[in-house]
Amino acid sequence: MSALAEALVAWYRAHGRHDLPWQRERTPYRVWVSEIMLQQTQVATVIPYYLRFIARFPDVTTLADAPLDEVLHHWSGLGYYARARNLHAAAQRLRNESGGVFPDSFAAIASLPGIGRSTAGAIIALSRGERFPILDGNVKRVLARRFGVAGPPNERAVEQRLWALADEHTPHADVAEYTQAIMDLGATVCVRSRPLCALCPLQADCNAHRTHRQHLIPAPRARSCAARRVREVVMLIAQRADGAVLLERRPAQGIWGGLWCLPEFATERAARGFAAAELQGAELAARALAPVPHAFTHFDLVITPLLARCRDDGERRVEVREGDRTLWYDMRAPVRVGLPAPVQQILASLT
Ligand code: SF4
């Protein structure tokens, strides 16, 4: 075992996190779900989502048999919804091709939708203790700093160097502990800004610490220097007297793919035109409500909600079918569909 691996495992035994919900029963399925949820999302945020998800979808087949709407419902608020769509698609493939049994081989796992090299390695290392390196964002940061690998980690040459280091230092024994250790160190000690070097077991040999370059390594991602985009949309809150609100299913691809959203328009005029043409008898508010901002990774969205009081068309729906495009959503008895966080926020403000 390399000195780095030894130091990390010893640190993990004394200071690491040992009581996370996905550490209790480490089946490949549970590790898979947790690893996908933890992409781009903090542990504290993931825990309640993970517990609800596993309670409702305890195994591959249950997940595969569930409607996508319900899977997205359990993902609502976590963001990056392609992760949930891929989980569902992968579960259906496993159900259809192997009776719901999770595959053993790295190649078979890595071929599933939404699973890359690092996630496949983590699933095998954490659930079965077999030696596979991982390289998620936290591990990249630890290795880049420890070995002074400058340059943006999303550049091919930098990433190749980091994979080589990850492979070199992944031990043959205690792989699960080592894997959890390096992820934990990145999440709790070698954090993005102001790493806690005084608490770090790698400090004595750390290149970034010795050269005072923690703030420079890893370098920011290579991306264009264009200013952050702001996109403005109008969302129509078409509400009936009984409180139900009109929602539309978004296309499977793109932002909030497959989720249910308030009808969206480029301008207030277009929203008013839709209400006049499609919602007979709707009374539109004279003025829009206060804008609701929402930050995506690459741009900011500003939503202007516009309220329209609609006539009750009498439709009472208790479930959503696969091909449905619209839905009168009753907030007092909500059907289980996925809603984007700002839409949840707007709906909550109505009650
Ligand atoms: S010494 Fe500091 S910069 Fe180096 S690995 Fe540890 S926490 Fe990260």
Give me a quick take on this structure.
This protein is 44% helix and 12% strand. The chain is of the alpha+beta class. The chain is globular, with a radius of gyration of 24 Å.
Topology:
Elements: H1 3-15, H2 21-24, H3 28-38, H4 43-56, H5 60-65, H6 68-75, H7 82-98, H8 106-110, H9 117-128, H10 137-147, H11 156-169, H12 175-188, H13 207-210, E1 229-240, E2 245-249, E3 260-261, E4 264-265, H14 268-278, E5 283-284, E6 292-295, E7 299-310, E8 326-329, H15 341-350
Parallel strand pairs: 1-7
Antiparallel strand pairs: 1-4, 2-3, 2-8, 5-7, 6-7
The chain binds iron/sulfur cluster.
Gyration radius from CA atoms, angstroms: 24 Å
Give the second-level CATH assignment, the architecture of the largest domain: Orthogonal Bundle
Give the helix level as a range of percent.
40-55%
Number of strands: 8
Give unreliable regions as ranges: none
Separation of the first and last Cα atoms: 59 Å
Q: How would you describe the shape? A: globular
CATH fold description of the largest domain: Endonuclease III, domain 1
**What is the assigned CATH homologous superfamily of the largest domain?**
Hypothetical protein, domain 2
What does this structure look like?
With 351 residues, the protein is an alpha+beta fold. The chain folds into 2 domains: 3-210, Hypothetical protein, domain 2 (Endonuclease III, domain 1), CATH 1.10.340.30; 229-350, Nucleoside Triphosphate Pyrophosphohydrolase (Alpha-Beta Complex). 44% of the residues lie in helices and 12% in strands. The chain has 15 helices and 8 strands. It has helices at residues 3-15, 21-24, 28-38, 43-56, 60-65, 68-75, 82-98, 106-110, 117-128, 137-147, 156-169, 175-188, 207-210, 268-278, 341-350; strands at residues 229-240, 245-249, 260-261, 264-265, 283-284, 292-295, 299-310, 326-329. The strands form 2 sheets. Strands 1, 4, 5, 6 and 7 form a 5-stranded mixed beta sheet that branches. The chain has a 3-stranded antiparallel beta sheet with strand order 3-2-8, with no helix packed on it. Strand 6 and strand 7 (299-310) form a beta hairpin. Helix 3 (28-38) crosses helix 4 and helix 10 (137-147) crosses helix 12. The protein is globular, with a radius of gyration of 24 Å. The mean pLDDT is 91. The site of iron/sulfur cluster has 14 residues, from helix 10 and helix 13.
